[in-house]
Amino acid sequence: MEDDEQQGSEAATAAATLIGAEEGAEDPPSQLTASHLVKIWSHIQPVTPSDLAALAAPRQSGEGEGEFGEEAPAGVTAAVGRLQTHPFDTEAWRVLVEESKAHRWRRREALTAATRQFPSSGSCWVDLIDYELTRASVDVGRVDSAWLKAMQLTGYAYLDLWVVKLQRALETYSSESSEQRAASSEQRQSNSDSVERARRARDDAVRQFD
Questions:
Q1: pLDDT of residue 69
Q2: pLDDT over 60 at 32, yes or no
Q3: Which of 77, 89, 103, 139 could form a disulfide bond with 73, CB atoms 3.0-4.6 angstroms apart?
Q4: Cβ contacts of residue 76 below 8 Å, gap of 6+?
Q5: Dihedral through CA 123, CA 125, CA 131, CA 137, nearest 10?
Q6: What DSSP assignment string belongs to 128-188?
Q7: What is the dihedral angle through the alpha carbons of 104, 89, 150, 172, rounded to the nearest 10 degrees?
Q8: DSSP state, residue 47
Q9: At what angle do helices 122-133 and 140-153 cross, to 10 degrees?
Q10: How high does pLDDT run on average in the chain?
């Protein structure tokens, strides 16, 4: 029971720190409002010890880059060790995410775990969405689903999530405009060729009567 109360206190403090930092407060709130607590605890899916252990397990066959059986980077292993004891240690989560990026080690899994542990942290969601958007093959459905869930859990108030949406819209518009310009250019070339053929046919016909 004491362990549960301690973890609950750690979760509240960690969430308060994240929310305060994201809202631009100079001094993060020492305790959460009732609405924040309801939002967090109704959606939170805490990462389990087995989830953490999987992040630091040797690489499996066919899993991303690297060789089968490759050991996890030391930084990942150290961060996971800290989180096994203190699952709401925000500094350990920061190290885990940075190490997974630096070593290309189960980055999606690490970022997803962070959003599960801190569902109302807009920065965690932005990191996950940015990662999905930089993959060679972007899963649009996965990105849209993550963005919508992030907006709901942050109360539609985290500015960087709106920036992500705007950037995607602009990129889509730019891509469509480029395709339209290319199609228009091809059409103009086709029309020009047709006019030239008609002109040659007319000249040939005129010469027959000379």
A1: 78
A2: no
A3: 103
A4: 55, 56, 96, 99, 100, 103, 105, 110
A5: -160
A6: HHHHHHTSSS--HHHHHHHHHHHHHHTTT--HHHHHHHHHHHHHHHHHHHHHHHHHHHHHH
A7: -30
A8: P
A9: 170
A10: 77
- The model's pTM is 0.64
Separation of alpha carbons 156 and 25, rounded Å: 18
Q: What contacts 15, CB < 8 A, 6 or more positions away? A: 32, 36, 40, 118, 120, 121
Residue 105: pLDDT above 90? yes
- Read off the tokens for 123: 């920065």
pLDDT band of residue 24 (cuts 50, 70, 90) is very low
Going by C-alpha positions, the residue among 4, 10, 3 that lies closest to residue 87 is 10
